[in-house]
Amino acid sequence: MQILKEEVRERILASAAKVFVTKGIEKTTIRDVAEEADISAGNIYRYFESKDSLVLTLMKKLEKSLKEFDKVVDLDVFDSNNKKKIDAFIDGITNLMKEQYLEMKLVCMSNCEQVQKMKSIIIGAIAKRIHYKLKDNKKDDILSRTIAAFFAA
Questions:
Q1: How far is CA 134 from CA 26, 76, 81, 85, 143, in A?
Q2: How far is CA 109 from the centre of its chain?
Q3: pLDDT tens, 8-60?
């Protein structure tokens, strides 16, 4: 029995993200991902039961990163003249975009139902944060969703 290796799993995920963004989820096959990862298609099935499982894992990875980012980000950064808070926020956004660029791009460009659900969750989470900051504005919900949509576009 072969032992599953975390580095192989991560290589599969990175390759899947790259191929999904290049070819689209619907047109990508497990064989395409295998070629990009330089492993056999059969080996991918030892780590992921299907292409949908790969997509869902990528989206959960992005969701986890967003949750971790949310824990670190101070919502009062927008009301602050504190350079350290502002710098930390900008560094956090920059790091998140570097680490999760392909996953975010995948969310933005895909018509896949699972990915669209994730996109809706991400927009909702961003809108909630913006809504919190604009709570005195009567049209804040529409404004919040509009601004949040630009983050996910």
A1: 39, 12, 18, 19, 9
A2: 12
A3: 999 999 999 999 989 988 899 999 999 999 999 999 999 999 998 998 898 88
